[in-house]
Structure formats: structure tokens, C-alpha cells
Amino acid sequence: xxxxxxxxxxxxxxxxxxxxxxxxxxxxxxxxxxxxxxxxxxxxxxxxxxxxxxxxxxxxxxxxxxxxxxxxxxxxxxxxxxxxxxxxxxxxxxxxxxxxxxxxxxxxxxxxxxxxxxxxxxxxxxxxxxxxxxxxxxxxxxxxxxxxxxxxxxxxxxxxxxxxxxxxxxxxxxxxxxxxxxxxxxxxxxxxxxxxxxxxxxxx
Length: 204
What we know:
Blueprint: E1 2-6, H1 11-17, E2 20-26, E3 32-35, E4 50-51, E5 54-60, E6 65-66, E7 76-81, E8 86-91, E9 97-103, E10 119-124, H2 140-143, E11 147-149, H3 170-179, H4 182-203
């Protein structure tokens, strides 16, 4: 886990100068879900704030609003089991990055506070307000054990979708492929076609 904070910032100052939180994590369909009272779980192509398999959001910590939330998304409940795969940045009023955690969820700041850094659970209104955001956030996770640096590393490490070798039948493989985001399905399809073309040319 990587934790960084700008040189000279202390916890009390952090509470005063922090205005925004940026969150990034891999949106794994088996570990994450959006639900609402009418539709239940949403499908892959309707996941708000998810692009290329990554969820990203910026929250105004003074108003508890997701700034990139759109009214057409409606009122939704996000539950995501992230464990150590998320990245979190604190920003000042000018949106300059002042702290970073790459690892477990800082649940002193992000709901819920009883999950030992594994989960994010957000009750989001259509205007982007997060209903269950804590009134008295705890920034200590960003302070304790952090490396003091002159400049925060803003790179995002993306988790691999598959990190183990397993065997599938053809039907099982196709079922797995169809669960992937559309852009990955297209890329895999292109690679399979290219590979098949090369093998055909070699046999001629």
C-alpha cells in the first residue's frame, strides 16, 4: 500500500484545507453493484461513472456531492467490495492533490466505517448528494504511515481482470467473455481473428 502526503501538512491542517476527494477503483461486476428501489441491479452498459472497467468519482467534501453525477442516473445505491485495489486522492480548494492512498478503503472518511477497509457503500441521490456521508470525517488514514513528499504520485494502478490460469469449456469461456465490458469483448474478438488469420496463412 502506498500512502503519500505533501511535506508539512498535519492532520488538523488537512481537515481545514481538504475540499475534494477523488476515488478510483476497478469495477468488478462480481464484487460491485448499483441498485435502486425499482429496477434492482443495473446492467453493465448502465453503470454510472464506470469507464473502461474503472469507477471514478470526485466528491465535494463540504457539500457531500459527487460532482460528476448526472440527474438522469437517478437515486442509486453503490456497493463495491474493493479491498486493496482502490486509489484515493485528497485535493485542496484549487483541486491540487495533497494526499494519496493506494490500497485499502479509508473508511474513516468513506462509508461504511465498519468494514475494515474492504467496502465502499454510497447512497446517492439524483443530484449527486451522498446521503450516508459522515458528518465528522476522520482523515487519520491519510496521515498515519504516510510518506512526506514534495509532489504526489498521481498514477493509477489498474488491476488485471484475470490474474490466474483456469480451464474452461467453450460454452463456459463464451459465458465469461460476454460478462466483460463491451470494449474488452471487441478487443478480444479482434485478437482472436488476427490469431486465426496468422495460423491460416502458416498452413497454406
